[in-house]
Specification:
Distance between the termini: 42 Å
Structural class: alpha/beta
Number of helices: 12
Oligomer: single chain
CATH architecture of the largest domain: 3-Layer(aba) Sandwich
Shape: globular
Order of helices and strands: HHHEHEHEHEEHEHEHEHEHEHEE
Helix content: 25-40%
Number of strands: 12
Largest sheet: 6 strands, parallel
Radius of gyration: 21 Å
CATH class of the largest domain: Alpha Beta
Strand content: 15-25%
């Protein structure tokens, strides 16, 4: 087990170095060059039949970004691009924010958007939704964070039909053109050191995560790997959230937190959750703890509900804010490059150099002393990504559809 965590730590540190070389706050850049031309050619030699067999067996290989030979992506130069958006779990604020942003991007760009929502408790709805989009013959499909392996075969089918499939904060499986997210392992390592220093590397901690969602594992395993190297950092317990369970993940997190506090009381110093929705309900459980608790709860996402809880001064003390809108915007830029301009990966002006890459953007840690104030644009939290906040042509000032996500006090 310790060797596995050390391997995770090594991967996280490698990601830190990669991110330092390839990540930038400017729009449309920050790609990780994961495949050289020769590697891309080798990947293209992999047959679609082999990929389909892997999808059916549930095995997506050691590296999920392996690409096969597919027909060219459909290009819509002289007509509106038809885009499908597959999503669920609006319980998580990052999901809500991405959903808001795609509804800004589509009308601004003149795209025809088809929204398909499915319940996390009914994963079969994701398959039905994906099949619906394929049947409707959309040009591109954008998929927000989900248990994506369950639709891996349908992603291959979509690509065989010339449909581009793109991820936002999701796991790469064969056929996905690109993903856009933060380097979650790097964010986890940053959080690990931040909290370790707060407690002078002498604290008891517990973890609540959803292991079936890859990004949740990336946000927690590197922390455990780092803390394994410090004798004063002790793991008291770990619980798994089930996105497809009969209870919401938030309710599951509430129940687990209550049990942790009942069992460990004031001995529990840090509770690590893999997303802010769990941190919010964990905070509610901590507030009702008999005898009180000083546990510091941390999460990942950012948004109005998160920051409202943090302003109240409870146990939810730290959140890693994701630039979710930027993830979505970068994917939309890539869709434009590939399926309107007709570029291919590696072309001058294309955001990726090979199929199956991830476009990375960096977030930031928010503590209770620096919670973003209400009634301001979400983009202000990220300093407008280094741009001019008064530039009315900049994407972060687009106000189409539902309009810019404004921070609210809930």
């Amino acid at each position: 087990m310790k060797k596995n965590r050390l391997r995770v730590l090594a991967m996280a540190m490698s990601a830190v170095m990669l991110a330092g070389c390839t990540t930038t706050p400017s729009v449309g850049t920050g790609t990780q060059e994961t495949a050289k031309p020769s590697e891309s050619a080798a990947a293209a030699d992999t047959t679609a039949e082999a990929g389909a067999a892997e999808a059916e067996s549930g095995d997506t290989g050691d590296t999920s970004a392996v690409q096969q030979e597919f027909p060219p992506l459909k290009v819509a130069r002289d007509r509106p691009l038809k885009v499908g958006y597959l999503y669920s779990n609006l319980e998580a604020e990052s999901c809500t924010r991405s959903y808001n942003q795609i509804r800004i991007e589509a009308p601004h760009r003149g795209w025809e958007l088809t929204e398909v929502y499915f319940s996390q408790q009914k994963p079969e709805e994701a398959r039905t939704g994906m099949q619906t989009l394929i049947t409707q013959d959309v040009d591109a499909i954008v998929i927000y964070n989900m248990e994506i392996v369950g639709i891996a075969d349908l992603i291959l089918q979509a690509r065989q039909n010339g449909i581009g499939v793109y991820n936002v904060d999701n796991q790469l499986v064969p056929g996905v053109v690109a993903n856009s997210c933060q380097p979650n392992g790097v964010a986890a390592a940053e959080f690990a050191y931040y909290m370790g220093e707060k407690y002078l590397w002498n604290a008891n901690y517990a973890v609540i995560a959803a292991p079936s969602l890859q990004v949740h594992v990336e946000r927690t395993d590197p922390i455990k790997a780092i803390y394994d190297q410090y004798p004063g950092m002790k793991l008291l317990g770990e619980e798994s959230l089930n996105p497809s369970g009969s209870e919401s993940m938030g309710q599951q997190a509430y129940n687990y937190t209550k049990r942790f506090i009942e069992k460990y009381g004031t001995d529990l110093d840090i509770l690590i959750t893999s997303y802010d929705g769990a941190a919010v309900t964990a905070d509610e459980a901590a507030a009702q703890a008999i005898g009180g608790t000083d546990v510091a709860i941390i999460g990942v996402d950012g948004g109005s509900e998160t920051w409202s809880h943090m302003r109240k001064g409870g146990n939810f003390k730290y959140s890693y804010a994701q630039p979710t809108e930027l993830y979505c915007h970068k994917i939309c830029e890539l869709v434009d490059e590939l399926q309107i301009q007709g570029l291919t990966p590696g072309d001058n002006g294309c955001s990726i150099s090979a199929y199956g890459e991830t476009i990375y953007s960096s977030g930031k840690i928010i503590d209770q002393d620096h919670v973003p104030a209400p009634n301001q644009s979400i983009h202000s939290v990220f300093d407008f990504y280094g741009g001019d906040p008064d530039d009315q042509e900049a994407w972060y000032n687009w106000n189409d559809g539902p309009g810019i996500y404004m921070i609210a006090d809930k």
